[in-house]
Amino acid sequence: MTSLADPLDLPHGPAWANRFALAPLTNTQSHADGTLSDDEHDWLVARGRGGFGLVMTCAAYVDRAGQAWQGQLGIASDEHLPGLTRLADSLRATGARSAVQLHHGGRRADSALTGQPLQAPWDDPKTGAVALTTAGVEAMVESFVAAAVRAERAGFDGVQVHGAHGYLVGQFLDPRHERTDRYGGSLENRMRPTMEVLDGIRSATGPDFQVGLRLSPEGFGVTVAEGVETTRQVLASGLLDHLDLSLWDVFMKPRHDQGDRRLIDHFTDLPRHGARLGVAGLVQSAADATWCLEQGADIVTVGTGAILHHDFAAQAIADPGFRVRERPVSREVLRDESVGAAFIDYLADGWDGLVA
To answer: What pTM was computed for the model?
Structure first.
């Protein structure tokens, strides 16, 4: 029986100390130019000290046109390298493994911030987004690959491609909109941007560099059936070290499927071909995390719990009865957990019931 404290070996690179990963949480703490701030550095390094096997950054934009919010971390140019290198060095000193989540907002980017038109797989009159040409998709793929190379240069152990939550890579998976080139129509074609990004990163980085992917297995146009097939194919590709499924709630049933199976159960019995499977969504206690492993997950990704406790991982491993503190919590409590002022304001504005 796997335990939360068990080390995790992956196909490439170093083992993780345990089965906990920090979720790539939007925290709005970076400088306006996407460079790392002290608050963002300290927030992440505290989670490394707090026992997480993997500490992952927030979604970091790979192209300025893909920036989706104020205070977003960037990995789009070498101007971002000094801060990223400092962060990678600090995380290594904690004993945690590290990764940058690579992101492009697509039609969910903010053109008021970027000064550039919104990009999408299709024309979207509601947002004003313009469909990428075939050459534009190829350039988008290259921006992800270049960002991964930059992460490796900075000293991170790996990257995770953000293919979830209706951002650009995930937008291609949505079958409700048509393209007529090799990136549209069939599931194979709609998966092509994802696969080209992963293959490009694997080819451009070293043999010890870890490559991950995050997917929404249902929602944003993706049905459970297509989510299962996408998951099956990316796991079989041999390109991944880890796949993180963003379930919103690890205990939930599919929203649009009439069966009695939980959403997690559609995915944990798929062949993994050496890749490791993670799940995320409302893990609030050591018991919740252990339950995820019992269902067949290899990794438990923690978000809210890691905001409330910088050492969620260490506490959950040490105490099977550990559960997160009651909410709402004061700003002082969050400051003591190395949550910076901009992040606290973001949580107060957008996370109901978290900040008193």
So the answer is: 0.98
pLDDT in tens, 217-248: 999 999 999 999 999 999 999 999 999 999 99
Beta bridge partners of 278: 244, 299
Kindly tell me if the per-residue pLDDT of 183 is higher than 80.
yes
C-beta atoms surrounding 188 within 10 Å:
11
Count of other CB atoms within 10 angstroms of residue 91? 27
d(CA 224, CA 58): 26
Share of the chain above pLDDT 70, in %: 100
Calculate the alpha carbon distances from 9 to 6, 73, 97, 242 in Å: 10, 28, 12, 10
Q: What are phi and psi of 103, to 5 degrees?
A: -145, 145
- 313 — pLDDT class (breaks 50, 70, 90): very high
Q: pLDDT tens digits, residue range 125-149?
A: 999 999 999 999 999 999 999 999 9
Superfamily name with CATH number, domain 20-324 = Aldolase class I (3.20.20.70)
pLDDT of residue 149: 98
Residues 6+ positions from 216 with CB-CB distance below 8 Å? 163, 164, 165, 166, 170, 222, 227, 245, 246
Sorted by where each begins, the domain ranges of the chain are: 20-324
Query: Is there a catalytic annotation at residue 183?
Result: no
Using one digit for the tens of pLDDT, what is the confidence trace for 110-130?
A: 999 999 999 999 999 999 999
Q: Which residues contact 327 (CB under 8 A, 6 or more apart)?
A: 308, 353, 354
How many other CB atoms sit within 10 Å of the CB of residue 254? 19
Q: Which of 61, 167, 183, 346 is catalytic?
A: 167
Cα–Cα dist 170/238, whole Å: 20
Task: Tell me what pLDDT residue 213 has.
Answer: 99
